Amino acid sequence: MFCSMAHILIAYVLWLVGGTWGLHHFYLGRDRQAFIWWATFGGCFGLGWFRDLWRIPEYIFAANRDKGYMREFEHKRICYSTPPFNVVRFCGELILGWSFGVLVRLCVPEEHAYEGIGWLICVTVPPLATALGVHVVANEKPCRASFYWPLVGALCGIPWLIYDSGSIHYSSILATIFVNWKGVQWNPEVGNNRPFCRRFLCLVFCCLLYSTMWGVAIYQTASITTKDGEEIPLREAIPNFFNSPAWAEMKESLKQLYKFYQVHGFERLWEEFVEKLDPAGEAHAYKVLNIKENATEKQIKTSYRKLAKEWHPDKHADPSKKAEAQEKFMEIQRAYEILSKIQSKRMKMNTRDRRKEEDYDQTGRKKRMKDEF
């Protein structure tokens, strides 16, 4: 009893801190359900996570092979030749099957989805992914299902996919109906006796594969909107970024950091890295005012006045240029304020340091005079 209470307490703590990623299910040996929770953000956006609030004790009894739980489980198997219909499981099969199918469909670029090999992939592969998603949920204990029936149901949805390659929900619905109609059986195995390392590596592999698929889908379908309102596909924007001046500057900064590490070691590398990040905005301010980093206060003021006069909004009559000038004018003002504040702080610090040195010299002289006396 004490052991069960301790397991329940640990399970609830894991449910609270990592329940949306299925951490408590992995602890209880329910690896398949942990993956489902991770893939659907806590069991269909947190609904499954909330339901686990009162389901965790039952999971604990199943994991510990509790005698009362085992008697009840055997009684169910005697009363029902196959597991009774479960609305929650049915919805889970439907959602995960549909999400798997949509994910595979999104991996195909839209311009290739209606011709040639792209069209063939969009018609044949999503039903297989849908069947796999339904199969994952259908095999959650205490049930067991073969891959055959969800596959048959998903393939029956191909006619709708031929008409519209986005109609994956038909395959998901049919796969779920078929697996509940013919494919579900009792799973006599209770608990999880597989080694921890094997379980962990298997779960990590599945999560990485699923994440990779989402990465491919986002890369193929997402787009970036420019300030002109033009939508550029992400798969075009990323290669352009690696050819941009920003990436060239970043590479140069990384090279400089590596050279700094070779000379000064790891201890001072972090300080140099923070300086490169320019948290105070000092380096950017110097760049905006077009002056060197060792510029004097007089040079900063001269450059500021010159640029502020050049980019003042009242000097630009064209509305489009006036908006640009106003933005540039505000940037120049911010840069001047940053540098003025930094220089003021440094002057105060220098004054404080000089006073400390003077006090130290006076103390030393007094001590020497006292010793001589």
Write the layout of secondary structure elements.
Layout: H1 2-18, H2 23-27, H3 31-39, H4 41-45, H5 47-63, H6 67-79, H7 87-106, H8 116-138, E1 143-145, H9 148-155, H10 158-163, H11 169-183, E2 184-186, H12 196-221, E3 223-225, E4 231-233, H13 234-242, H14 245-264, H15 269-277, H16 282-289, H17 297-310, H18 319-372
Antiparallel strand pairs: 1-2, 3-4
What does the model show?
With 373 residues, the chain is mainly α. It contains 18 helices and four strands. It has helices at residues 2-18, 23-27, 31-39, 41-45, 47-63, 67-79, 87-106, 116-138, 148-155, 158-163, 169-183, 196-221, 234-242, 245-264, 269-277, 282-289, 297-310, 319-372, and strands spanning 143-145, 184-186, 223-225, 231-233. The strands form two sheets. It has a two-stranded antiparallel sheet with strand order 1-2. Strands 3-4 form a two-stranded antiparallel ribbon. A hairpin with a 5-residue loop joins strand 3 (223-225) and strand 4. Helix 1 runs antiparallel to helix 5 and helix 17 packs antiparallel against helix 18 (319-372). The longest helix is centred in the last third of the chain and has 54 residues, at 319-372. The radius of gyration is 33 Å and the shape is elongated. The mean pLDDT is 83.
